[in-house]
Amino acid sequence: MPLSTQQVRYLRGLTHNLQPVVTIADKGLSENVLAEIDAALVKHELIKVRLRAERALREQWIEAVIQKFKAEKIHVIGQVACFYKRNSKKPVIALPGKA
Known about the structure:
By secondary structure, the protein is α+β, with helices and mostly antiparallel strands. The protein is 40% helix and 20% strand.
């Protein structure tokens, strides 16, 4: 289910106090990095990821994370991207209702 504009704004506000939980660098989206992203999304739902590469490669990595984990891209600022994926069994973040 796509997020509403109100929900995305709410989640963007929550990302300000987050620290990046995963850094993707020279080795790209290795199995270990993907496992860390998966574990962080399950536990926290909303995560910040640092992407150390040129813009085109960062965009490829962002799309790969979205496709692999069915996550929502909340926003990207420079080399930092924020993703959200609702935990269906044990939700952590209560989203505001649709506008």
